[in-house]
């Protein structure tokens, strides 16, 4: 499929404020901003997906199906990162994780994320080790999202399949979860057609043939993107224009 994963989009009550928080949390840069979105982008030379914060009035009702895992290079760095984020306004979160070597936090709007213990497989990812996506069937979801994202399977194991764009940057991990999609996701993925491909309509046609379906999240007519849902109901957008 001639498309590429380009953004991770975050619904926010205060997009500008939450973007500023994540910019400080990650050490990233401010990107494009207007009344409809505030972007946070990696530092020059660091791999990663842009984070796009958009205004949504609906409150957060359930734990997010997509969250970020932040990298640590040592136990000391993990402790320092957790302390820094708590001082910045994060809170500790309980998602039923029990006794684990990673730390679960939530940002000021309640979005869960993890600060990982040091793991060699995440060397070279940048600040974000992985975009983690809950899935009832991780292998089927990776089979769908591999072609849609343009990323390839990097590893798989018990209950997890990870995609990656080459040998650097974050992973897109599908992790087994029995919890079904019940409400609109507050975090979703955006893709664009590649310049060498046959355009957005072709991407949409192929995604539908692969198991996607049209989705209505109140976007209305005339917007420059098309909203679809993957085979497990998770919304994503196919943006207009090719990848830069």
Care to describe what's here?
The chain is 20% helix and 36% strand. The strands form 2 sheets. Strands 2-3-4-1-13-16-15-14 form an 8-stranded mixed β-sheet. An 8-stranded mixed β-sheet has the order 6-7-8-5-9-12-11-10, with helices on one face. It has 4 helices and 16 strands. The model has no long low-confidence stretch (mean pLDDT 95). It folds into 2 domains: 3-176, 2,3-Dihydroxybiphenyl 1,2-Dioxygenase, domain 1 (Roll), CATH 3.10.180; 187-242, Signal recognition particle alu RNA binding heterodimer, srp9/1 (2-Layer Sandwich). The radius of gyration is 17 Å and the shape is globular. It has helices at 15-26, 75-88, 138-149, 200-209, and strands at 3-12, 29-34, 37-41, 50-55, 66-70, 91-92, 103-106, 112-115, 128-135, 152-157, 160-164, 171-176, 187-193, 213-214, 225-229, 235-242. The longest helix is centred in the middle third of the chain and has 14 residues, at 75-88. The protein has 244 residues and is an alpha+beta fold.
